[in-house]
Design goal:
mainly alpha; elongated; 10 helices; single chain
């Protein structure tokens, strides 16, 4: 056994060592530090989310985005309508040129087609030419009013044309442009009647596909979505290779399947 004099210094050194360990501060717990940091960050996020001005700004941004989508759709429609109108005008001029050339040839030869497809005497074309000239002049007058955006005059003149020259070779075109004049003035009810009459009275007309297309457009403008969808589908089914079918398909893509 060690003597007391020899054990005492060792005991003192041990106590000093223990005191040194007890006086050293504990290191921070890394997990607790991380939790504290996350808690502070969540608090900042909650304060931002609860800021009413930011919420209002977000709502305003959503509204602006919705308006932008609507505007984009309107621009696309206007572009499509403009291209359709230009094509229709080109078709109209070509059709008029063909008909006038045929009439001039018949007059030059002294013959003109009769009711049964035969030919009349040279004396008959004079009266027929006068009638043809009258309906052509009336049609041109109405069409010029339409091009000048004098829609009320165009409507009145196309209606007069259809009353006076119901059997004219230009009657189907007049019926179609009457519908267009109603459509651009947002008289969609009368536009529907005018466009529908093209298909009913002149089913073989070159205007029939475009008239059916614009009938669907007018129904859509009146919020008759189910009717519009059915009409536009008819365009695609009846005239699959036409430009009208392409425009109908484009419009159908913007109509929800469950819309009524």
């Amino acid at each position: 056994m060690l003597s007391l004099s020899r054990a005492w210094p060792a005991l003192i050194l041990g106590v000093i060592a223990l005191n040194g360990c007890a006086s050293t501060p504990d290191e921070p717990d890394p997990a607790q530090v991380k939790l504290n940091d996350i808690d502070e960050r969540l608090g900042r996020v909650e304060r931002v989310v609860n800021n009413q001005s930011l919420v209002a700004l977000s709502q305003r941004l959503d509204a602006l985005e919705s308006q932008l989508r609507d505007l984009h759709g309107n621009v696309e429609e206007l572009q499509n309508n403009g291209e359709t109108l230009r094509k229709q005008q080109r078709d109209l001029y070509a059709d008029l040129d063909r008909r006038i050339s045929a009439l001039e040839a018949a007059l030059k030869n002294g013959t003109i087609a009769g009711p049964a497809g035969g030919t009349g005497l040279a004396a008959a074309p004079g009266a027929a030419a006068g009638a043809a000239s009258a309906d052509q002049a009336a049609y041109n007058h109405a069409f010029e009013a339409l091009k000048a955006a004098d829609y009320s005059a165009a409507i009145a003149q196309f209606r007069d044309f259809l009353r006076l020259y119901a059997h004219s070779a230009l009657a189907d075109n007049a019926q179609y442009w009457l519908g267009e004049a109603y459509y651009v003035t947002r008289d969609y009810d009368d536009a529907i009647g005018a466009f529908a009459a093209v298909g009913e009275k002149y089913p073989q007309s070159r205007k029939a596909p475009d008239a059916l297309l614009k009938l669907g457009y007018a129904q859509y403008e009146l919020k008759h979505v189910g009717d519009a969808r059915a009409t536009l589908n008819q365009v695609v089914q009846r005239y699959p290779a036409s430009d009208a079918a392409k425009l109908a398909t484009e419009r159908l893509s913007h109509i929800p399947a469950d819309a009524h």
